Amino acid sequence: MPVQAPEARVANFDEVALGFDLDNALVECERCLICPEPACVAGCPVGIDIPGFICKMIDGDHRGAYDIVTEANFLPAICGRVCPQEDQCEGVCPVGDTLKPVAVGRLERWVGDRAIEEGWRKRPYIEPNDFRVGIIGSGPAGMACAADLAKAGCAVTVYEALHAPGGVLRYGIPEFRLPNQVIDEEIGNLIDLGIEIKCNTLVGRLFTIEQMLGEMGYDAVFIGTGAGSPKFMNIPGETLNGVLSANELLTRCNLMVAGRFPDYDTPLHLGRKIAVIGSGNTAMDAMRVSLRLGAEKVHCVYRRTEGESPARVEELHHAQEEGVDFQWLTAPVEILDDGDGNVRAMRCVRMELGEPDESGRRRPVPVEGSEFEFETDMVVYAIGTNANPILGQTSKLKLNKWHYIDTDENLATSMAGVYAGGDIVTGAATVILALGAGRRAARSIKEYLGIRDSDIVYRPERSGHEGALFGIDMAERNFARVHIA
Amino acid sequence: MHRQGPNTETGGGTQPRKWRPGELDAGFPIVGREDFSDTTFRLDIDHPVMAKAARPGQFVIVVMHDHSERIPLTIADFDRDKGTVTLVVQAVGKSTCEMQQLCHPGVALYGMVGPMGLPSHVSGAKKVICIGGGLGVAPIFPQARAFKEGGAYVIGVVGFRNRDLIFWEDKFRQCCDELIICTDDGSAGIKGLVTKGIEQAIEQHSDIDEVIAIGPPIMMKACAETTRPHGIKTVVSLNPIMVDGTGMCGGCRVKIGDRIMFACVDGPDFDGHDVDFDDLMNRLRRFKEEEHLALAHWKENCRRPGQERS
Ligand SMILES: Cc1cc2nc3c(=O)[nH]c(=O)nc-3n(C[C@H](O)[C@H](O)[C@H](O)COP(=O)(O)OP(=O)(O)OC[C@H]3O[C@@H](n4cnc5c(N)ncnc54)[C@H](O)[C@@H]3O)c2cc1C
Ligand SMILES: Cc1cc2nc3c(=O)[nH]c(=O)nc-3n(C[C@H](O)[C@H](O)[C@H](O)COP(=O)(O)OP(=O)(O)OC[C@H]3O[C@@H](n4cnc5c(N)ncnc54)[C@H](O)[C@@H]3O)c2cc1C
Ligand code: SF4
Ligand code: FES
């Protein structure tokens, strides 16, 4: 796929991956074997009918392709950009045994972008029922749950604590990977379905879940508040100026537009020589944002090796191209002061891989006497997150031992009528898993409210030739097929 | 149905919608303002739900317009009948000076979220000293009132630079059994810092159960040091730099004893004897350069408010 050249892109916030044009997309479609038992569909957490949409593409029915994709995933332009396809559909595609696998993600993105360009919307006529559902959090989990319930005729309100909706998609993932324009369009889809989105609402503090089910008259509640509380390591020097979490850095840049200070009010105070601890997607984003804002040198400090890095391979690869210096098998021990309360340097230790731990990954152990000092004026933590405490503090919800919300396999919590999904249940995961969880919870909520799929009456907007029988959308049956890894 | 049905047209027709900032919230209307001095002013914001939910010690985050910072401000008062939340703001930098210029009745704030933070624990203490200095004078008020309503004997100690800056004296007199006013220049009350007021109160009352202090970190530190030898429990309300206020960024972390806490979700109230104030004061200097730059940039442009925004 065409990308912006590394030298050019480190100086701008435009998208790195430029996406296929129609010709490229069709060439890619032709590579698909249209397997009768497609491995990719099984590998996709929401089971998109991948060969199905590829066939439509080959037939030249782009709208049809969009309809097929959105039956399973209503955020194709987003997921096509951010899903770890190498671990999912593309990772199991047999074409990949000998050649590169079919670039499913890029095709999905092409379809999603095409829909935005053309203004295609799923805007069916929905027969309203009398149920009201409240959704807490406007990340992918909340959005997916809201969309499915709205399509089933429920009156849905989404509450978001920040002043703009989208969750991590908005405040975390940067513009050059996922333009805000794309998020705004996809959220526009929700508004079109009649969903009400209320920002500036911190549930738990402004009102509680109990109040939502009581006075506020919601029949069910879905919690998709994300994992969101950054971890630190508790090493000396962590409160010095110049030490911050990747979440803070990214929020200042993405949500608050600190890159355009002072036209925007939020400052960042970027360092010159930046050390990012961790090597997941969050770390990659923090490093690449720092480069674009003008950092001279960016280092990645990770205690394991490249092979264990949890980032999407594409992002790791892009970061390497853009000139990030990777210090594998290295862990910080102490952050050192310049005498005036700012970061001057970091003391690190080299690691080696020892015996495998419970997760099967080889545990890194420090190499005796390998400590060294590393000059840096900004240290960014991207080593994962803890559960956000607010809903736990303000309700009787049962939490698990890591303080995430405890649910059963249908995503029901310990409170009747309250369901939860996404990062707040699983811990930090991926967009598509959150989206799948939102849909699964929607299915459970429909069951809880006694809405049968056959009661859902809407005239779907689609390309015409398939799907609707007696005004009942057969595609809605697709809910039964959703399965999550 | 109580809601606008979804678009019933199928096919092309209407333009698809796209989410735009500010589109979903009508904003938060300012319904009252009073200037206490040339830097301090009171704003009443219409938000009936928050007025019901707010408890003493909690704060809000205000976003004035779509280019603004998210700035934390303590809920200085709330009127559950009128449905308003009161903030008292001291203009110290770009954002607060801009608020002073632009926030008038009839204007709506772009964003206001809260009430954030854990409510203050209004203990069953029998005798308390409530101390407010600088921008802490307003926030101490709801706490003093809550203690009074809980049946405690409340000694108020409030500090100002001089008599012209004094506000809410009558409000404090209503909820305090004793009120000690301290001014730097002695133009009203006793001359000196609030710590002098605390010492005076402790001398006169040997049975003080609890002290609550809100103000600049340097003042809270001094208060904690004043009460430490007497072993009186001292609660302070910390004001580190914040971004989201929901526990998501960690920018607000503070050192409490040997632990790191997030002031926005674990606080803002902490035991003053455990707080590392030097660390807090250092972290408040984090954006010194940018703060100067922002103020200068704004002063240059503020004659044409709104126009320079692109
Ligand atoms: C920097 C970064 C990069 C990432 N990159 C990728 C990637 O490339 N690919 C991928 O698949 N995944 C990626 N992820 C992970 C992915 O974004 C998350 O797994 C996913 O967004 C989780 O979705 P969610 O809906 O559970 O929660 P979130 O997206 O976290 O959304 C939760 C929302 O709820 C709101 N909220 C929280 N508490 C309350 C409350 N009390 N009241 C009201 N609202 C509340 C929050 O403000 C937030 O907007 C990345 C994550 C980060 C941080
Ligand atoms: C929980 C909490 C409650 C607060 N309550 C109030 C209140 O009721 N009334 C009020 O006037 N202010 C309050 N503040 C402080 C207020 O948020 C800051 O004054 C404001 O953010 C400054 O923004 P600025 O752009 O005007 O000034 P800046 O240019 O950002 O800063 C100017 C000066 O203010 C200091 N400052 C910056 N941020 C903060 C901060 N978060 N806390 C304290 N000092 C800061 C700086 O060190 C600098 O000296 C509170 C802060 C917190 C965290
Ligand atoms: S994308 Fe790969 S696995 Fe999926 S149908 Fe095509 S060839 Fe088969
Ligand atoms: S302000 Fe972001 S975590 Fe407290």
Strand order of the largest sheet of chain A: 4-3-2-5-17
Helix content of chain B: 25-40%
CATH topology tier name of the largest domain in chain A: FAD/NAD(P)-binding domain
Amount of helix of chain A:
25-40%
Total strands of chain B: the figure is 16
Coarse structural class of chain B: alpha/beta
How does the helix and strand content of chain A classify structurally?
alpha/beta
Rg of chain A to the nearest angstrom? 23 Å
What name goes with the CATH superfamily of the largest domain in chain A? FAD/NAD(P)-binding domain
What sort of overall outline of chain A do the alpha carbons produce when their principal axes are compared? Answer: globular
Element string of chain B (H = helix, E = strand) = EEHEEEHEEEHEHEEHEHEEEHEHH
The CATH architecture designation of the largest domain in chain B is: 3-Layer(aba) Sandwich
Strand content of chain B: 25-35%
Query: Average pLDDT of chain A, to the nearest integer?
Result: 84
The biggest beta sheet of chain B reads:
7 strands, antiparallel
Task: Explain what this protein looks like in three dimensions.
The complex is a heterodimer of chains A (485) and B (310). Helix content of chain A is 33%, strand content 17%. Chain A has helices at 6-9, 22-30, 39-43, 50-59, 62-72, 76-82, 89-92, 95-98, 104-118, 140-151, 168-171, 180-192, 209-213, 246-255, 281-292, 313-321, 390-394, 423-426, 431-449, and strands at residues 125-126, 132-136, 155-159, 196-198, 220-223, 229-230, 243-245, 273-277, 297-301, 325-327, 330-337, 343-356, 362-366, 372-375, 378-381, 385-386, 418-420, 458-459, 468-469, 472-473. Chain A has a five-stranded parallel sheet. In chain A, strands 7-15-8-9-10 form a five-stranded parallel sheet. The two termini of chain A are 28 Å apart. In chain A, α5 crosses α9, α6 (76-82) packs antiparallel against α9 (104-118) and α10 packs parallel to α19. Chain A is α/β, with parallel strands linked by helices. In chain A, a hairpin with a 5-residue loop joins β12 (343-356) and β13 (362-366). Chain A has three domains: 6-118, Fumarate Reductase Iron-sulfur Protein, Chain B, domain 2 (Orthogonal Bundle); 132-228 and 387-453, FAD/NAD(P)-binding domain, CATH 3.50.50.60; 237-384, FAD/NAD(P)-binding domain. Chain B has two domains: 17-116, Translation factors (Elongation Factor Tu (Ef-tu), domain 3, Beta Barrel), CATH 2.40.30.10; 127-284, 3-Layer(aba) Sandwich (Rossmann fold), CATH 3.40.50. Chain B has helices spanning 48-53, 94-102, 137-149, 169-175, 194-204, 217-227, 263-266, 277-283, 288-301, and strands at 28-35, 40-46, 59-63, 70-79, 84-90, 108-109, 111-116, 127-133, 153-160, 178-183, 190-191, 210-214, 233-237, 253-256, 259-262, 269-271. In chain B, the strands form three sheets. Chain B has a seven-stranded antiparallel sheet. In chain B, strands 11-10-9-8-12-13-16 form a seven-stranded mixed sheet, with helices on both faces. In chain B, α2 (94-102) packs parallel to α9 and α5 runs parallel beside α6 (217-227). The chains are: A alpha/beta (485), B alpha/beta (310). At the A-B interface, β1, α12, β4, β6 and α14 of A face α1, β7, β14, α8 and α9 of B. Bound molecules: flavin-adenine dinucleotide (FAD) (2 copies), iron/sulfur cluster and FE2/S2 (inorganic) cluster (FES). One flavin-adenine dinucleotide (FAD) is lined by residues 59, 71-74, 88-90, 92-96, 135, 138-139, 239-242, 268, 284, 291, 294-295 of chain B. Iron/sulfur cluster binds next to α3 and α4 of chain A.
